[in-house]
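Researcher: Structure for this, please.
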Amino acid sequence: MKINTTRVKMVLKNEAIPAIFLENELGISRSIIEKVRDDESEFKNLTLETIIKVQKWIDSGKYTFSYDYSELIEELEEDIAEGLAGKYIYVVRGPYNEILEKCPIIDYYYTSEDIEEGDLAEKTLTASVLAEMKQDNEIF
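Model: Predicted structure, token format:
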């Protein structure tokens, strides 16, 4: 099992998730969660057992991490509707995002000739790009 401490910390610090819910869902003491949230206890002092419980919960798909692609999705959908984007587009990705565990899409070009100097772009099916962005944009 790979433990992503950034993700684990985000789950524990996320006050939108009631501590009692995490206690019931994961079997972690509510007081531990509240101490981490109130900065009374440092994340590094958590037991490995606690961290593994949170990571397993994340891995089970019960908690997802999102990326705000709203504007880029709207732009691409308009470009598709106008016929500007064909079957394939050239995608530019940003730096590795530890929370998403991948490099997010930050821009795209219609043709290889459009790619600006210094940009690395990968040829990808337009439908796949749109599907990836919509999936990463969802909040559960």
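Researcher: Any notable elements?
Model: The mean pLDDT is 92. Residues 48-59 form the longest helix (12 residues).
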